[in-house]
Design a protein that fits this description.
- This protein is α/β, with parallel strands linked by helices.
- The chain folds into two domains: 4-224, Spore Coat Polysaccharide Biosynthesis Protein SpsA, Chain A, CATH 3.90.550; 243-368, no CATH class.
- 59% of the residues lie in helices and 10% in strands.
- The protein has helices spanning 4-14, 27-38, 55-64, 79-93, 111-122, 142-159, 178-183, 190-202, 226-266, 274-301, 308-335, 340-363; strands spanning 15-21, 42-48, 68-73, 99-102, 128-132, 171-174, 206-210.
- It has a seven-stranded mixed beta sheet, sandwiched between helices.
- Helix 3 (55-64) links the parallel strand 2 and strand 3 (68-73).
- Helix 9 packs antiparallel against helix 10.
- The longest helix has 41 residues, at 226-266.
- The chain is elongated and about 85 Å long.
């Protein structure tokens, strides 16, 4: 039976620390030394197109220890591309490692916290481990506290998972999930948010690990631009839901246009058979708009490949359930004294968000689940 020290030694030997870096200062070599002295078997640094004046720092890194490898981009591509460059190199050159730990180059992530994540990886559970900071502390810059709280709430509403720290750069995952991480879209800081969304859709557990909250000099050494990069991240979070709303609006307009076309033009303006005309016009319009909604949600919003039949019957079941819940909700609120117009607005708004989540996870999400 392994002792705690033997377990930790193996965990550190089997893990890879991956650090993307752009124009670092002397904190990076000091950080690499601490990681190597802690016992990590592999440290990979990706120079994301730093200028010539910074190359001496990168050259010094490989002199620290043979376990340190530096990769270079000729020009700056962004953090997402730098991470993927590291992932590909690790996949091709380190076949026996247990997993990857990503860390930032600015000293925010302590060696002790990296050790903690390495020990979690060694336990063998497939998950995305997230170093989670405490944003209630006084040393956290207001821009970081506010940005993370907003993204946490949005992520909960749209993807059903509360994550206290959505923008942490300290993460870890098993080697088996390297191909999955390489498939996630994104070139710059938004890549890390795309990873969270992809994990939520694929049912890969996201496990917060409490870490030390370090912000040196108000975090002024970071290359993260609060306005530009925050807006990019917010767009990533809400992009799927905005598409969903756009598709819904389009299908609503199609429904209305077809109803009026058939009811007023094709079937004429007679009064004797008016009820039959309305029923037939409604059926044609609703079936057509619902079919369009399904096709666009499948291919544009949720991007499901294959398994159309399975998704189709799930979509039909969901539509019937939503219709029933809407009627029941309006009836119950009406019994409580609320006007039916207001009741329907409230009930259908809530059901709209529920429909998005159910379509994301169940109707169109089944094929994206990771096989464990």
């Amino acid at each position: 039976m392994k002792t705690n020290s033997q377990f930790q030694h193996k965990a550190l030997e089997d893990a890879v620390i991956l650090i993307p870096s752009l124009e670092p200062d002397e904190r990076l070599p000091a950080y690499i030394r601490r990681l190597v002295e802690s016992g990590f078997g592999h440290v990979v640094v990706v120079d994301d197109g730093s200028s010539e004046s910074y190359q001496e720092i990168f050259r010094s890194l490989e002199e620290i220890d043979p376990r340190v490898k530096v990769l270079h981009h000729d020009v700056n591509h962004g953090k997402g591309v730098a991470l993927k460059t590291g992932y590909r190199w690790i996949q091709e050159n380190l076949p026996s490692i247990s997993g990857v730990i990503t860390a930032d180059a600015d000293g925010q992530h302590t060696a002790a916290d990296c050790i903690h994540l390495a020990e979690e990886l060694e336990k063998g559970q497939r998950a995305l481990y997230l170093g989670s900071r405490d944003f209630s502390l006084e040393n956290v810059p207001p821009k970081s506290r506010t940005g993370n709280r907003i993204t946490s709430v949005l992520f909960l509403l749209l993807y059903g998972k509360w994550l206290q720290d959505t923008q942490t750069g300290l993460r870890a995952f098993r080697r088996e999930d390297l191909p999955f991480m390489l498939e996630v879209e994104g070139e710059r800081f938004e890549y890390e948010m795309n990873v969270l969304i992809a994990c939520a859709r694929a049912d890969l557990p996201m496990i917060p690990i409490t870490i030390e909250t370090v912000y040196e000099n108000e975090n002024k050494g970071t290359h993260y631009h609060p306005l530009k990069d925050s807006m990019r991240i917010f767009r990533v979070i809400i992009r799927g839901f905005v598409k969903f709303m756009g598709v819904s609006l389009l299908c609503f307009l199609v429904d209305q246009a077809l109803f009026n076309l058939f009811n007023l033009s094709v079937f004429g303006n007679g009064t004797v058979k008016r009820a039959g005309f309305i029923l037939l016009s409604t059926a044609i319009a609703r079936v057509t708009s619902a079919t369009l909604n399904f096709v666009l949600n499948k291919n544009v919003v949720f991007r499901l490949k294959g398994n159309t039949g399975g998704a189709l019957w799930k979509y039909a079941v969901l539509a019937l359930v939503i219709m029933g819940l809407s009627a029941a909700g309006v009836w119950l609120l009406g019994k409580a004294g609320m006007h039916s117009t207001l009741a329907k607005l409230i009930v259908d708004t809530l059901l709209y968000f529920c429909s998005y989540r159910v379509q994301q996870k169940w109707v169109f999400g089944g094929e994206k689940s990771i096989k464990k």
